[in-house]
Amino acid sequence: MTHIKTRKYAPRATMLATATLAAGFSPLTALAADADADSAKNKATDLDQVQVRGSWFAPSSPKFTAELLDTPKSVSVVTEKTIQEIGATNLVDALRMVPGITFGAGEGGNSTGDRPFLRGFDGQSNMFVDGLRDVGTQTREVFDLEQLEVVKGPSSAYGGRDSGGGSINLVSKTPKLKNETSASMGIGTDSYARGTVDANYVLGDGIAARLNLLKHESDIAGRDAANVSRWGIAPSIAFGLNGPLQLIASHYHLETDDLPDAGGFPYGDPATKTTVGAPIVPNRNNYYGLIDRDFQRTRADISTLDASYSFGEHKLRNIARLGNTSNDYLWTQPDDSKNNPNNFGTLWRRTNNRAIDTKTFADQLSLTGAFQTGGLKHSYSAGVEYSEEKSSKGSYVIGGAGTNNPLTGNQTCPTTGAATGYNCTDFYNPNPKDPWSATHPVTRSDKALDIDQTTKTKSVYAFDTIELSEKWLVNLGLRWDDYDTEQVTPVLNKAPTVLNNSDGFLNYQAGVVFKPTANGSIYLSYGTSSTPPGMDSGEGNDSISAAIENLKPQETKNYELGTKWDLLDKRLNLTAAIFHTEMSNARVTVDSGNTENAGKKAINGVEIGINGQITDNWNVAGGYTYMDSELKDNGFVCGVTVPRGQPCPAGQYIVSPNNGNMFPNTPKHAATLWTTYVFPFGLTVGGGASYVDKQYGDAANTKWVPSYTRWDAMIGYAIQDNISLQLNVQNLTDKTYFTKAYASHYASIAPGRAATLALNVKF
Length: 763
Fold this sequence. Notes:
Oligomer: single chain
Strand content: over 45%
GO molecular function: siderophore uptake transmembrane transporter activity
Radius of gyration: 26 Å
Number of strands: 41
Number of domains: 1
CATH class: Mainly Beta
Keywords: Cell outer membrane, Ion transport, Iron, Iron transport, Membrane, Receptor, Signal, TonB box, Transmembrane, Transmembrane beta strand, Transport
Number of helices: 5
CATH architecture: Beta Barrel
Domain TonB-dependent receptor plug: 68-166
CATH superfamily: TonB-dependent receptor, beta-barrel domain
Helix content: under 10%
Shape: globular
Protein name: TonB-dependent receptor
GO cellular component, one term: cell outer membrane
């Protein structure tokens, strides 16, 4: 029996879709259904008990040409069952227990939305849906997710342009040949109400349809005023599920309308009255925004056509996508630029706003299969991709006195109240109901002046896992990208400003795998990534500008030595790896004042994971990540103070004092533990903890969020085979901690304790 298994892409219903894989250090528990519906174990709970078969489970991407046990890279897969079990309702919730992932805050340059950091690198632009890049910033939902797949380390060989830390792929639910409907209705503290429906029907010979529905309303636990509201619908239909020729058509629609809580609290040190240090929290419930002003409305429409044909040991597949997303917001950032909290006990209500629409077209044609040359067995995947992304970015204009304090003409707030236009508020006792909008009309900026950016990418790739013998495998991957991006900024009564970057870059993934036994592997791998200017379509940290438009892509490389083991008849999975990631030509300012590819930063780390069943009833999972990051060469900075917007005088540049500092948003230590136990009388009890070390918000390492430990708990009870109750308590001890650190002004506080009770029904 060969260790390589050909990917024929059977319907996902046949792929052990309820198992959780920790082959890449997912610390989440795995539960699976018992085959005997009449057994006491199966009656224990709707959170069906499962046997973990880590190396048998496969990610959705055809670019993985071996089982994950034999893939020389850190990959985590989080299933729908795990997402349900921990009570997650969005992407941040679903990923919160994966060590090595943190989250950054948005502002003006970085849109407010999902902004994960993977191994210290900003992954906001490294999001994928069903293997195709998803560039529009959103707060992503989980109601239509089959699973989440996290590839860690430079991964441009898999997905093209990449920030260097890895990528996250969201796998959508698709039809299967089984009549099955599940519904969940939940209520909870903080006005929580959530309902989902997942209905799958067989319509004919090889034909099935699936419909997923969502409605969600809730406040934010421990926070005044803030709330979220969203609804979604995701229909899909499939033909030929029982034959070699298959066609799946699907659409995803999600709308949100929130009173956002992105601001949190400003950094500061009351003892020294400076704006450095940890966030100042007079009361965790304080909400500095305005009900009368703040909003965030997003919309996502994604249509996908997935066609495939299997012949022999090979499969030809084409997946095409049309996407249209929008993200409109105006919210309050608790600014500290004038040190108002320390000087006056007040706060300036700075506004951040954005109105952006993003349209995408992507097409991926691939051929996968297996063949043999002489005594060598190959499992391969090759393909071509084309994508075109168009974004249009505008803003909201605030009339009247604007957001400055009319008494001072700037952001200084010695007093508060109506005389300040309610742009200044009491830091210790803010009033989110201040009547702001009556004297501050808000209008959309002239769409004719929106900044437009178009990015086109043409790619070709190939992967091959070669079995040299039963003991030795070689994994190879290669990708070429032809990248072109152009940004057009209209200027009133003048010619527009046009920025452009065109380049081609080659990336690869190579690894060797030694199998001392069939259930274990030891691997050594090397991978690269390229980060070109403008790769984020104007949405985040890699926006194009005049200073960098002609620069080469930043290049990152990663060395990794790891091992993966399936124990206890493949019920328990153990993983460990050490890695070194290095960006050798980071964009920095040099002593001439120009920006060049001259910087260097590196991170050394260790990841350890355990996941599976110790006994038939006891599941345990955990993970630990150590990341030692360093800004080795951060360029130069101006050694004298100059007015904002003015150039540094010649000869006044000095070596950056940030050299040797840690990466922002990169904790040195992070650990998780989650466990469940199934009792024979219908009760499941689960609990977990996550620890995240201190994180800096800025490269100067002067602003940070403290370390924290968070506890969660779950109880499930099976009323009968198809009806169960599930109680989740998030942040069990009501811990005050911060989940996101922005570089300059503020950090985002986490929700307080919240409890939800869900009734889950299957028929």
